[in-house]
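User: Could you go from structure to sequence for me? I need the amino acid at each position, not a summary. Structure tokens:
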């Protein structure tokens, strides 16, 4: 199986890689669904929405402050490094991520299409200014903009549209690639998950890396059952040798 995947990627002209929370699991960052997805008694869907933020901005910010602390202590794992290596070796490799943790950046990946935003950036709810803020923990919650307005995480919440430019770049990468490598996503969040059938419909070979079955496992061309931290370095090594 992995040799098939290696051949497809080696012979591909255009490669797209789409990652989800599973690629950061081995860095110790809890994924959204499954055991680690809870904080106090809340699920991500209860907190990652404009309604939750309007109702209780302090609670939502406490959740992000807690996640920022975990992410700040986390290191990119071999999967992030293997993806960065592939991108360096293959200029025609587009990285699309649903993650907001910034670990792909820290592993050296560039031109990352961040579909759901960035946990290290803030946006003012009053003047819409946007800025990086890496303070952990935050000195005051909720954080404020220089204009005095309340800041929100520069993250795409449920019910909010994805950044239009980034989304259209991700769509065209999925529709033009010869191989789409899907790593560590449960493929239940849309529109991100729709990139998988779009790539397939456009004729790409789709390879999935996940220790578990997902709703797309039955319709991909190659399912590599295992952890990203083990499989990606093996893939990168055999592709680049
Ligand atoms: C939109 C930022 C429209 C937040 C995130 C009903 C009501 C309301 C909305 C909807 C609805 N039905 C559908 C929707 C749309 C909704 C949606 O898809 N909901 C789902 C839950 C059904 N989508 C939206 O709302 C999107 N916006 O539709 O807007 C619109 C359009 C125009 C104008 C106005 C509005 C916005 C979606 C973005 C939400 N924000 N993140 C934050 O992070 O704080 S999504 C969140 O889920 C994360 O980004 C995460 O990445 C993403 C997807 O989850 P996964 O990455 O897949 O992670 P998960 O834990 O699920 O799975 C981990 C996987 O890894 C597992 O498969 C596991 O087996 C695997 N794994 C574990 N260990 C490893 C591993 N794999 C490899 N190696 C390992 N070691
Ligand atoms: Zn402001």
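Assistant: Here is the amino acid at each position, in order:
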């Amino acid at each position: 199986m992995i040799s098939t995947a290696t051949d497809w990627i080696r012979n591909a002209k255009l490669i797209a890689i789409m990652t989800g929370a599973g690629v950061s699991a081995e860095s110790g960052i809890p994924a959204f669904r499954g055991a680690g997805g809870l904080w106090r008694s809340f699920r991500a869907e209860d907190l990652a929405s404009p309604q939750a933020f309007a109702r209780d901005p302090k609670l939502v910010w406490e959740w992000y402050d807690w996640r920022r602390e975990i992410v700040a202590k986390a290191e990119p794992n071999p999967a992030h490094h293997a993806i960065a290596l592939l991108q360096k070796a293959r200029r025609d490799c587009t990285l699309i991520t649903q993650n907001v943790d910034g670990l792909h950046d820290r592993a050296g990946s560039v031109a990352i299409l961040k579909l759901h935003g960035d946990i290290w950036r803030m946006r003012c709810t009053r003047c819409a200014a946007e800025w990086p803020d890496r303070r952990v923990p935050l000195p005051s919650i909720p954080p404020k903009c220089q204009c005095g307005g309340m800041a929100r995480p520069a993250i795409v919440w449920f019910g909010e549209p994805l950044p239009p430019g980034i989304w259209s770049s991700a769509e065209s990468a999925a529709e033009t690639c010869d191989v789409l490598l899907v790593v560590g996503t449960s493929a239940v969040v849309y529109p991100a998950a729709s990139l998988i059938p779009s790539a397939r419909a456009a004729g790409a070979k789709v390879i999935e890396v996940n220790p578990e079955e997902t709703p797309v496992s039955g319709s991909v061309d190659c399912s590599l059952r295992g952890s990203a931290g083990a499989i990606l370095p093996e893939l990168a090594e055999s592709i680049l040798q």
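One structural detail worth keeping in mind: The chain has two domains: 2-28+76-116+162-239, 44-73+123-155.
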